[in-house]
Amino acid sequence: MVTSISLYALHLRTNIFIIHRIMKKILGLLIIGMGLIQVTMAQDSDIKGFDKSKLFVGGGLGLAFGTYTIVNVSPLVGYRFSELFAAGVGINYSYYGYNDGYWNYKQSYAGMSIFGRVYPVRQFFIQVQPEENYMWYTQSGIGSYQDQPTYKINKFVPSLLVGGGAAIPTGGNGAITISVMYDVLQNFYSPYYHQAVYGFGYNIGF
Predict the structure, then answer these.
(1) Which residues is 124 bridged to in the sheet?
(2) Residues 6+ apart with CB under 8 A from 191
(3) For a surface tag, which of 9, 75, 158, 191 has the fewest beta carbons within 10 Å of its beta carbon?
């Protein structure tokens, strides 16, 4: 007979294994991204000398509450290697919640991205952004459906965002960024499945 203690131990081991895989994936992407930035920065340093004013941090924050609950946090750090090219890394977390009176839906993503931007015109850019997220999804019954079994999905979801946008100077080293991108991989579980990705954020240079 399977006891509740053994089921708990199995669940705990499964969660530890999943967390370990997430950390390995994120660490791998972080090493690759930082390695690329470091190599390019070293080349830039050999030519002109490292310029900290070319570093920038930024990202986006999204919040919505009501029938739908949406939370999105996506900080990033990058380096403007030249007038034409910038690259960097980012991390992201997003949560989506919805209650239709019968079912309670909860979906979370956590992951990391590497991005590259080409500026064909000074304030406009083309961006490519590989991204790896881990998804947690649960669907549980409420009210008259509360006796229904809970449905869960936990898995890694890759994305490849391609698009463009504009960086609008706000004075000093700050700029508002607006972008529109599309996930060309179109994984069914992607947070960007069958929809354009509209970005709005703020970058600050050093």
Answers:
(1) 121, 166
(2) 94, 96, 109, 133, 135, 157, 159
(3) 9
CB 26 within 8 A of CB 112: yes
Rounded CA separation 79/53 (Å): 9
Q: What is the largest CA-CA distance in the chain?
A: 70
**Do residues 111 and 129 lie in contact, with contact meaning Cβ atoms separated by under 8 Å?**
no
Model pTM greater than 0.90?
no
Q: Distance between CA atoms of 15 and 21, rounded to whole angstroms?
A: 10
Burial label for 190, CB within 10 Å (0-12, 13-18, 19+), is: buried
Each of the 206 residues of the chain gets a pLDDT tens digit; together they read 444 344 334 444 454 455 455 555 555 555 555 555 555 555 544 455 678 888 999 888 777 777 778 888 999 999 999 989 999 999 999 999 998 889 999 999 999 999 999 999 988 999 999 999 999 999 999 988 889 999 999 999 999 999 999 999 887 778 899 999 999 999 999 988 988 888 888 888 76
Please give the helix or strand (H or E) that residue 17 lies within, else none: helix 4-47
CB 193 within 8 A of CB 186: yes
